[in-house]
Amino acid sequence: MSVSKKSLQIQKTYEALFALEDIREVFRQSLPTGFSPAEQEEFSKDLSRIKNIIAELESGQGKPSCNRIGKLDARTREEEFINIHPIQAAGRLTPEARKAVISYGDGYSTCDYCRKPFRLDKITRPPIEEFHQSLAKFLNMDQARVVPGARRGFQAVTQSLVEKGDSVIVSALAHYTEFLAVEVAGGVVKEVPLSENNIVTGEAVARKIEEVKKETGKLPKLIMIDHFDYQFANEHDVCGIGKVARDYGIPFLYNGAYTVGIMPVDGKKFGADFIVGSGHKSMAAAAPSGVLATTDEWAPRVFRTTQMVGDLTSRKFGVKEVENMGCTLMGATLLSMIASFPRVQERTARWDEEVKKSNYFLEQFQRIEGSRVLSQWPRKHTLTKVDTTGSFDVVAKTHKRRGFFFSDELKERGIIGEFAGATRTWKLNTYGLNWEQIKYISDAFIEIAKKYNLNVN
Amino acid sequence: MSVSKKSLQIQKTYEALFALEDIREVFRQSLPTGFSPAEQEEFSKDLSRIKNIIAELESGQGKPSCNRIGKLDARTREEEFINIHPIQAAGRLTPEARKAVISYGDGYSTCDYCRKPFRLDKITRPPIEEFHQSLAKFLNMDQARVVPGARRGFQAVTQSLVEKGDSVIVSALAHYTEFLAVEVAGGVVKEVPLSENNIVTGEAVARKIEEVKKETGKLPKLIMIDHFDYQFANEHDVCGIGKVARDYGIPFLYNGAYTVGIMPVDGKKFGADFIVGSGHKSMAAAAPSGVLATTDEWAPRVFRTTQMVGDLTSRKFGVKEVENMGCTLMGATLLSMIASFPRVQERTARWDEEVKKSNYFLEQFQRIEGSRVLSQWPRKHTLTKVDTTGSFDVVAKTHKRRGFFFSDELKERGIIGEFAGATRTWKLNTYGLNWEQIKYISDAFIEIAKKYNLNVN
To answer: Which residue from B97, B107, B436 is facing A92, i.e. has the nearest CB?
Structure first.
């Protein structure tokens, strides 16, 4: 099978999916009693179109289609290429999530059977309430809510705990959304320095707390640290940090944007008061989605319900949670999380294998002289920062396409997701690639190196 | 075509969509060089399955499938029934949005070509930047951002403008999310009383402002009023309110959750400083999604960028907007909005026809003695509160299924979306139904009334 045959077949797959959506629309426009003659004709036309598409999908022969949706191109990157993009890997939908998104795409699709007390996480059909319980258990926490992205989980916590001028401990590798969450609550970030190998330790957190206490006369209100950071995906000492947090009586927010959904996360073990995870980054869910879990101790505060009373009507809106603004993910986002969840649970149990594949690839990668891994080595994660200043960047210096030569070479081999044009320090993620794909990209990197006469050990 | 044939065909449509997703997964697991023998076999098996499904879809004969996705049922309500649910009508996806959701479901699918300055609304491929400009223009405002639901738009505004103890003017029919947005910012709601026909007027707002001034010694910080409210969908005097807001120099947030995306909205005409709309309620987009638009005057405040500086690293995250927590809708939600937008623009221009259909249905409905429209009459909206205490509730009183008899009768006729069991006051929405469907539901209501010997005039 040639690459172009595969590419055509992918186009045809989309074409068939789209044609079926056209058929679905005929049903939507029709009466419960059945089709009108015009609708019957449209249905038949769409159907014969689909049959042709399926024939071309099977044979791999035919004219490539123009699968545009208005001004949008159909996105076929995940089918046509191996994608090593640093943040897209674990947010790719499972087939189950894609089916859920097809079924539950409509706006308020989760609300068909919403009954008292009228809150998303209490809905039993589809089994949203049950999912919330499973989520809490999955993280070994007491309660969980879904939120529109990890950042909204941070925000709910900072706005509940932090007042104007309060300090919040973050890592020197903190993600920008942690900065924003502190800022929006009126707080001030205090960064913990890294050890020489770019790790945040419990001791460093303790020292920073003492510094803040000395400087401001007050303890920080919150410690918010990533288990694995977004820059190097190094593992930070969350157990040690959790212990320090307990010693000082400061609540600890465990940022699991790069862990929840891909590796086992045990909130109690880490001593976490809050766990935040990202649906679209690590739980194979559509964006924006995420999870905020907490303990029974903190739930009344961060999940506090509305106290506002209408001055004229005396209206009160009972169980609606202030920081969540009531309901959060009313449709495809939540249902994609739910649909992916069984597979997400399975895959977290297979995390060691993912790390093994990551290390295998990077071992091959480091055979190319001048190529280095900047993240902690051996890897404990599939996201890695690499430095190719001494290898591919040397080629880029004299190549007429500059750094883009490397993107060109990768793309020609069916690999995408590197930061196009970057040949010095850049990030990649091997999460979810199978062994064949891992070996394929390993070979591809070596092959490109050899083509440009770089030394391969 | 019998109802059960249609139902089977709908099942088969989903079955085919799901089988194509299985094929898509084979591509995703394969190498750029092509299928392995095992993959080829899987592909062939899926393909022959699809061919059988298509044959059954065509003939309308075959065994109904079990289209479950784990614990989730496939949601076929929109295909199998006419849905008159009060809040689902205008959030149903267009076929274009459904195709976009299929293409862009994966987590960070919008981020393939994210380049400096690394912010969602600046991305040009897909044309997200252009969409933001179109959105602002569509609302006749200067700037727009997408947000995870209208509620998050309210919140961005209240948190930017309202401080602890400040008053915010809302309507006595304000939605609970407006209450929460005020509460989360530390403010206090002050409700404007309704006129005898349940309308909020400019004069009533002015009087309330004076009251608040007298009571608190300060002017309210914000006026937040729905153009059409969620209870009756009555039209409130937003032009008059906008004028009062200008007279007092108080910013005016126009809540367009029930207007933006279905009827023309002109921010300048209303004197709006902020316009908030809902993607999943009125813009045919997946949840959670929405829009927050403002003027060049207010943009620097509500869209202010981060000022937080790392105390250790001196890191700053330049253009990220604090209230939006950086990027907002990174995938299917935004792309569904964009894909629906051309059709959304068209349909807003056809709003009068939608109102005409709503009035037609309700005229028929009111022929059933004892049935009343509680919303303003004639209707200026497609969402309506009705009272059937004098008609269907009389039947319910002695029926063994109580109020559910009415749901049963509707469902038997292929109509859903009423609040199951409710036969006194309840809400319905005819938005987006075509004339055949409008006439069909009109006839169905009359038929049910006659069946139970209610008088029909």
So the answer is: B107
In A197-249, which residue ranges form alpha helices assigned H by DSSP?
Answer: 202-216, 238-248
Q: What mean pLDDT do residues B408-435 have?
A: 97
Interchain CB contacts (distance < 8 Å): A and B: 439
Residue of A nearest to B9 (CA): A27
Structure tokens at A102: 């097809």
Residue A169 · residue A220 · CB < 8 Å: yes
Residues of B in contact with A34 (CB under 8 A): 1-3, 5-6
Beta-carbon separation of A177 and B325 below 8 A = yes
What's the CATH superfamily of A350-451? Aspartate Aminotransferase, domain 1 (3.90.1150.10)
Chain B residue numbers touching A341 (CB-CB < 8 A)? 70
| Predicted confidence (pLDDT) per residue in B341-387, tens digit | 999 999 999 999 999 999 999 999 999 999 999 999 999 999 999 99
Instruction: Compute the distance between CA of residue B54 and CA of residue B167 in angstroms, rounded to an integer.
Output: 60
**What whole-number distance in Å separates Cα of residue B148 and Cα of residue B276?**
11
Q: Is A346 on the interface with B (CB under 8 A)?
A: no
Every domain of chain B and the residues it spans: 3-80, 109-347, 350-451
Structure tokens that stand for A411 in this block: 């793309």
Which tens digits make up the pLDDT trace of B213-265?
A: 999 999 999 999 999 999 999 999 999 999 999 999 999 999 999 999 999 99
Task: Report the pLDDT averaged over residues B172-192.
Answer: 98
Q: What is the pLDDT of residues A231-246, one digit of tens each?
A: 999 999 999 999 999 9
Question: Cβ separation of A112 and B13 shorter than 8 Å?
Answer: no
User: Is B149 in Cβ contact with A325 (below 8 Å)?
Assistant: yes
Q: Mapping DSSP to helix (H, G, I), strand (E, B) and coil, where does residue A276 land?
A: strand
Ranges of residues in chain A whose predicted pLDDT is under 50 = 1
Domain A109-347 CATH (choose: 3.10.129.10, 3.40.640.10, 3.30.390.30, 2.60.40.10) = 3.40.640.10
